[in-house]
Write a structure and sequence with these properties.
- The complex is a heterodimer of chains A (about 110) and B (about 110).
- Chain A is about 0% helix and about 45% strand.
- By secondary structure, chain A is an all-beta fold.
- Helices cover about 0% and strands about 50% of the residues of chain B.
- In chain B, a hairpin with a 2-residue loop joins strand 5 and strand 6.
- Chain B is globular.
- Classes of the chains: A mainly beta (about 110), B mainly beta (about 110).
- Chains A and B meet through strand 3, strand 4 and strand 8 of A and strand 4, strand 5, strand 9 and strand 10 of B.
């Protein structure tokens, strides 16, 4: 199972771009990289998912280098409401018995 | 609306009592998961199930039990053997094939042992 490492916390100001990097050195060939956002006392919410190169949706971009040993979640122009914990999840398989293990997450604090 | 429903949202129990947390999904997902979250901590996997009548232990299964008799339901029982059960419990589901790691979470159940 691929283990992930993220910074424990990050601080930013409103309007700035925030990049959160996740390290996953032993990622497997079939693994996808998925990022989640969690607010206090709520379940995590899917943000974005990718396998390689770059993926962009309406809220974020995900950059994955060719070796796939890391990934970077990019949040453009953050606002106060982006203050949350962000988790990087690596896993997924077409085979049965896949356990999806979360890392400790990155607490992002956005100030005005 | 499709989604995952966890109940109860808040639960109190006395030491030595078993308690069962409910998790129901109408997403037609094959796989379901239970995670535990302690204050300021990440999510730790308790049990997961890929298909009906089958489930696997996660990292912290001791003191917990599950069943998967129906595709829609994956209840978690916190037994008296769990030494420190006070925590926030999250249920999730995903497609089994392909299981890319896209999880859908419920809103959680907060258990407090008095």
């Amino acid at each position: 199972l691929a283990k992930t490492t993220q910074p424990i916390s990050m601080d930013s100001y409103e309007g700035q771009e925030v990049n959160i990097t996740c390290s996953h050195n032993n990622i497997a060939t079939n693994d996808y990289i998925t990022w989640y956002q969690q607010f206090p006392s709520q379940g995590p919410r899917f943000i974005i998912q990718g396998y390689k190169t770059k993926v962009t949706n309406e809220v974020a971009s995900l950059f994955i280098p060719a070796d796939r040993k890391s990934s970077t979640l990019s949040l453009p122009r953050v606002s106060l409401s982006d203050t949350a914990v962000y988790y990087c999840l690596v896993g997924g398989s077409n085979q049965a018995g896949t356990a999806l293990i979360f890392g400790k997450g990155t607490t992002l604090s956005v100030s005005s | 609306d499709g989604g995952i429903t966890q109940s109860p949202k808040y639960l109190f129990r006395k030491e030595g009592q078993n308690v069962t947390l409910s998790c129901e999904q109408n997403l037609n997902h094959d796989a379901m998961y239970w995670y535990r979250q302690d204050p300021g901590q990440g999510l730790r996997l308790i049990y997961y199930s890929q298909i009906v009548n089958d489930f696997q232990k996660g990292d912290i299964a001791e003191g917990y039990s599950v069943s998967r008799e129906k595709k829609e339901s994956f209840p978690l029982t916190v037994t008296s053997a769990q030494k420190n059960p006070t925590a926030f419990y999250l249920c999730a589901s995903s497609m089994r094939t392909p299981n890319t790691g896209e999880l859908f979470f419920g809103e959680g159940s907060r258990l407090t042992v008095l």
